[in-house]
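Render this sequence as a predicted structure.
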Amino acid sequence: MLKYLSKFVRNPMAATQDGPPDLDELFKDLKNKVDNMFNVKSKNNGDGGGLGNKPTNRSGDPLPITPILIIILLLWLSTGFYIVDQGQRGVILRFGENTEVTQPGPRWHIPYPVEIVEKVNLEQVRTIEVGYRSSATTGSSTSELRESLMLTGDKNIIDLQFAVQYNLKSVEDFLFENRSAESAVRGAAETSIREVVGKNPMDFVLYEGREQIAIDTKTLMQNILDEYKTGINITSVTMQNAQPPEQVQAAFDDAVKAQQDKERQKTEGLAYANDIIPKAKGSAKRLIEEANGYRESIEKEAAGNASRFDQILTEYNRAPEVTRNRLFLEAQEGIMSTVSKIIIDQKESNSLMYLPLDKIIQQSSAGRPSDNSSNRSTNSQNNSRSASDVINSIKEQSRGSFSGRERGER
């Protein structure tokens, strides 16, 4: 302060050499310096100091004090204009007391030192890292074991790292209800994640339960922060890394590999079962249907044979000799139709006969299926014919065979 005043005072230590400077002389010299700067002089230049006289300029006219004061007041009032950007809120503090929260747009407040404005961004998303710290310059991250190591529900230790993103939902609570927002969020995050992880087994935390762990942690964090009225809104909790401690990482990798092999073999077994079971069911169904068809055909054939036997028995009871001859001839016909031998009677003839034996054999072999089918059809027809028709056909066949024999003897 003395150095600043010495610029306007010629000899501040001239009063006495041994004692302190004279304050009256000091302020008087300072006042003269200020008057010279504004070209102000007093109408009475006596030693009285001119306390009752109005200040004048060099020309002797009175100095316009009121317009100067008005200009100074307007300049002071103009410093109270401010603009609140989109997504921000303006908090007006009057002598340190919260009086108003303003919305985005141009605003005005009583200038300093009566009121001051603090602008707070509500929509800005802030991020804190728990369990690690990333470097913006190098792009690498360092682990914070004090924050990342925690105990699971099955008494295993895991190394878990995650990030929390948040914004603000209450300006008053954010400014006046907590000292450090980052410390509050970090403390709530550590407390919440340890509570959630401590209720779940390690496999659930490391694999299928990551998303559920993040959701539960977010909900618990929000409840804690709302209870303390911090004005903070948690937007997301992102799991960055979850793994066992480095000291047991190799053994854990072996266990994970074994678990993956187990799942792979289980999947292969299910695939093989899905492939072979439908085929086995189809084969079983086909065999059952074939067996049912075979059973029905056998039953029908047996019923037909029984019916045919009953009809033959009835006819046999009526005409035993005729029925016996008919059965004998039918049996001989069936036997001879499958024989490839040719019998020629040359007892009373010396002529040489030429027969195309090879063609006869081929015709006889080719005619067997047709004969069999014709026999089957004949049998079926015979089953449906009446007893009188059967007897007449037997008589005709007997007469034809006897006439053939007579012609051969002649």
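Summary. The CA atoms of residues 344 and 353 lie 9 Å apart. Residues 78-121 form one domain.
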